[in-house]
Amino acid sequence: MNKFFKLFSVVAALFLIVGLTGCFFDLSNNPKISNSLNLKSFLTSEAGETGTLTADVPCLFYVFDVAGKSKTLDLNGYTISFAVESDSLVKDTLQVFGTLKIIDSSAGKTGKIICETSSSNSSDPDTCAIRVKSGGRLTIEAGIYEASGTGIIVDLGGRASITGSSTKIISGNTGILVNGEITTLNCNVEVNCTAIENNGTITTISGGGYVASTSTSYVGKVYALWNKGTIGTISGGNFSATNNGPNAATSYAFGLENSQGEITTISGGTFGAVYPLYSAHAINSQGTITTVSGATFTPPLSD
Description:
Elements: H1 2-24, E1 32-33, H2 36-44, E2 50-53, E3 57-59, E4 63-64, E5 70-74, E6 79-84, E7 92-96, E8 99-103, E9 112-117, E10 128-132, E11 137-140, E12 144-147, E13 150-154, E14 159-171, E15 174-178, E16 181-191, E17 194-198, E18 201-213, E19 222-227, E20 230-234, E21 238-242, E22 252-258, E23 262-266, E24 270-274, E25 279-285, E26 288-292, E27 296-298
Parallel strand pairs: 1-2, 2-5, 3-6, 4-7, 5-8, 6-9, 7-10, 8-11, 9-12, 10-13, 11-14, 12-14, 13-15, 14-16, 15-17, 16-18, 17-19, 18-20, 18-21, 19-22, 20-23, 21-24, 22-25, 23-26, 24-27
């Protein structure tokens, strides 16, 4: 009788453990994600082809995927939010080491990844919603990405493709910072200072809207596209910079600033800059632009 009771107890305990584990971790190939433990498990597990959010997911710590693994994250209209404190050493909240695709299967395409920071850390440009690490590969086809610092950072050795009419990056500082490579860019960016800063390589910008507009107290330069690296082709897109700050000799507005960078072809797009109190350039270049045709500049190309 005692042996039977002990065996029954062991079996019951095993069922309880498995049951509780199933509540927190869905280890199937297409897991449902309803909390931060689910999200971490999906990103780091051997299994899991497509993980789908089924609820808003608040995260107290950063998360990352695994190098050599391929995953698809479906935001499904829900929000992943990160809280970053001012003394945090890790300020990039979703780190991409493997191959990650982000989609949104919801009808309204309202899925978000948000980096929420304390007020003392709000202007730190290293604070970002997503960071593509060296060797990482990121594809974004939908979603809204918000950060007080930088929306998305692509490190040297990292690669990204950011497209989709519903894809939007909102930031208090820089929208997209490229130190590695972006193969295709066609999305919407709304920021205060710099919509795109390229120190690496962008193969193609084919469309989208890239808008930088400062507050009235801001003193400094404003860029829709600031190129210090290499860009292959700009065939479309709206690049708009508006400086609303006070008159200052160190402040400008640039639709495109090509600072010692190289651009092979500009064959389309609209470039505009507004700064009523000082200096505005739709396009300004100290670097190389091989071919320019079919684009609109307001005001025109500066000397």
